[in-house]
Design brief:
Largest sheet: 6 strands, antiparallel
Number of domains: 2
Radius of gyration: 21 Å
Number of strands: 8
Number of helices: 4
Structural class: alpha+beta
Shape: flat
Distance between the termini: 22 Å
Length: 212
């Protein structure tokens, strides 16, 4: 059985000029372990199958206007990516000093710390780069753009063999989130099971059809 996930369409504008139209998952965006992962739930509308009507859609859980949300996420990514990069550089410098002085501090421990910091740095930097591309900005230019919300459409998603699928086939982004993000994985599975149970209880054809 497929879940009907709400996607809010939005347009990025610079003054009167439109920079592009995208869609964001308005349900699972609230079930992610860390901030940069919200960005990967933004989709180019040409790459996914969206529909206007839904028989039993999941609710929209966006807690604030998209203009405010995306600008907040952007500033958070800008700050955190710099902090993580600085933390990694600082760790490597301290480790090198201890090595030069011949002070044993545990080689494998430092390797583990560096790998953890490198992974975090990559994820924050990639999230920042992706959002910059979507908004068409760099650095502190965030106030130059406006995110204008549009209507809500729906996308069918389901789980098969540990992979998240839509009508377009395997969604690699969602499948990766399912593997690496425990908050997302728990929400996805529990929501899917709840929808299956509800469908069995109501019976086919008794669900509500809505149109945004």
């Amino acid at each position: 059985m497929a879940m009907e996930v709400p996607y809010v369409l939005f347009e990025v504008k610079d003054g009167r000029k439109a920079k592009g139209t995208f869609a964001i998952d308005a349900y699972f965006i609230e079930f992610l372990s860390i901030e940069p992962r919200k960005v990967v739930l933004i989709k180019d509308t040409s790459g996914i199958a969206l529909k206007e009507e839904a028989r039993n859609p999941l609710p929209k859980l966006l807690r604030k206007p998209l203009n405010d949300l995306l600008k907040k996420v952007y500033m958070e990514l800008l700050r955190t990516s710099s902090e993580v990069r600085g933390e990694r550089v600082g760790h490597m410098r301290r480790w090198n000093v201890w090595r030069i002085l011949g002070i044993p501090t545990g080689h494998s421990r430092h390797i583990t710390i560096d790998e953890k910091l490198a992974k975090a740095e990559r994820e924050y930097s990639l999230g920042l780069a992706l959002l910059e591309k979507i908004l068409g900005i760099r650095g502190e230019e965030i106030e130059k753009v406006e995110v204008v919300e549009g209507r809500t459409l729906y996308r069918e998603l389901w789980l098969s063999g540990g992979q998240v699928l839509g009508k377009e086939g395997v969604d690699k982004v969602y499948t990766n989130l399912f593997k690496i993000d425990p908050t997302f994985r728990t929400a996805f599975v529990s929501t899917l099971f709840r929808e299956v149970a509800m469908d069995k209880t109501l019976g086919n054809g008794l669900g509500k059809t809505i149109k945004d």
